[in-house]
Specification:
The protein is mainly β.
Length: 209
């Protein structure tokens, strides 16, 4: 039987033996600092719109784009939508807790849900993981959803019934590096609690909310 996804599935299975490492959980409670050319704030709806060379930081999170809309709900959770200039992509970077690793992502639009601790990269989406300054893993698609609380991400080649971008070609693309030898020699996690630092989903049926 021809199984085109077998090499990718084997690589993902190798990742599942590594210890779980999550995004910096303290980031969600840090204030958001924003620099931009202009700001419009609506106090009634608790919504702020920053435009022009926007740079935002929230703990270890760094966000860059042409426009950032931030809303805060009555519970204090923040929700952000970052859009890029035409022909460019917005940028996201966040440290992973307890290790010298970073997650970077790009998309024409980036959505951040502070309550769910979820990030969506929409349109020409790309997600990268760095060990220090070395690129370890790289994934591309039309929509990438990254769950910070569980370090699970899903990648869709095409979403919402729309035609995929020419660069993505409607296909998910991934480059996964072998595990670090030092990590491989570490004691394995108990069999009753299988976990993974990054666990891509092979589902292509995700919905954009």
């Amino acid at each position: 039987m021809n199984t085109p996804f077998l090499p990718l599935l084997l690589a993902l299975a190798a990742l599942m033996a590594a210890p779980a490492v999550h995004a910096e959980k303290a980031d969600r409670n840090k204030p958001m600092n924003v620099e931009a050319d202009a700001l419009r704030h609506d106090d009634l709806s608790q919504t702020s719109v920053f435009t022009g060379q926007v740079v935002a930081t929230k703990g270890t999170i760094v966000i860059r784009g042409a426009r950032l809309q931030v809303r805060q709900d009555p519970e204090g959770y923040q929700y952000g939508v970052v859009t890029a200039e035409p022909g460019k992509r917005a940028f996201w970077r966040q440290k992973r807790e307890g290790v010298d690793e970073y997650i970077e992502g790009e998309g024409t639009t980036i959505e951040y849900d502070g309550k769910a601790d979820r990030v969506k990269f929409i349109g020409r989406a790309e997600l990268r993981r760095y060990r220090g300054a070395v690129l370890a893993d790289e994934t591309q698609g039309s929509l990438i959803t990254y769950e910070n609380t569980t370090d699970v991400f899903t990648v869709d080649g095409a979403t919402g019934g729309r035609q995929p971008s020419a660069s993505a070609g409607g296909r998910v693309r991934a480059v996964l590096s072998p595990r670090d030898p030092a990590s491989a020699s570490a004691p394995a996690a108990p069999a009753s609690r299988p976990v993974a630092p990054l666990r891509p989903s092979t589902s292509l049926g995700g919905e954009r909310k």
